Amino acid sequence: MRQLVETIAKALVDDASQVKATEEMEEDTLVIKLTVAKEDMGRIIGKEGRTAKAIRTLLNAVATKDNKKAVLKIVE
């Protein structure tokens, strides 16, 4: 799932080398923390958060398929 988020983020930003996604477990939920360059933050979030919501929807679909819970946190 980390690889999915990282691949999507790299396709959206200008500086793909700054994209980093890490996984952590918090209780029964997988938390994926996404870090991008400061100037690419707007591209990841999108207008009114639509891009971030779309990434979260895809992540949730993959997690549900595996009977897991997953959350995306975008770190500044």
Give structural notes:
The chain is of the alpha+beta class. It has a single domain, classed as GMP Synthetase, Chain A, domain 3, CATH 3.30.300.20. It is built from three helices and three strands; from the N terminus they run αββααβ. A three-stranded mixed beta sheet has the order 1-2-3, with helices on one face. β1 and β2 (29-35) form a beta hairpin. The two termini are 20 Å apart.
Distance between the termini: 20 Å
Unreliable stretches: none
Secondary structural class: alpha+beta
Overall 3D geometry? globular
Features:
alpha+beta; GMP Synthetase, Chain A, domain 3; three-stranded mixed sheet; single chain; 76 residues; 42% helix; 3 helices; 3 strands; globular
Task: Describe the SSE topology.
Elements: H1 2-12, E1 20-26, E2 29-35, H2 41-45, H3 50-65, E3 69-75
Parallel strand pairs: 2-3
Antiparallel strand pairs: 1-2
Task: Summarize the structure in short.
With 76 residues, the chain is α+β, with helices and mostly antiparallel strands. It contains three helices and three strands.
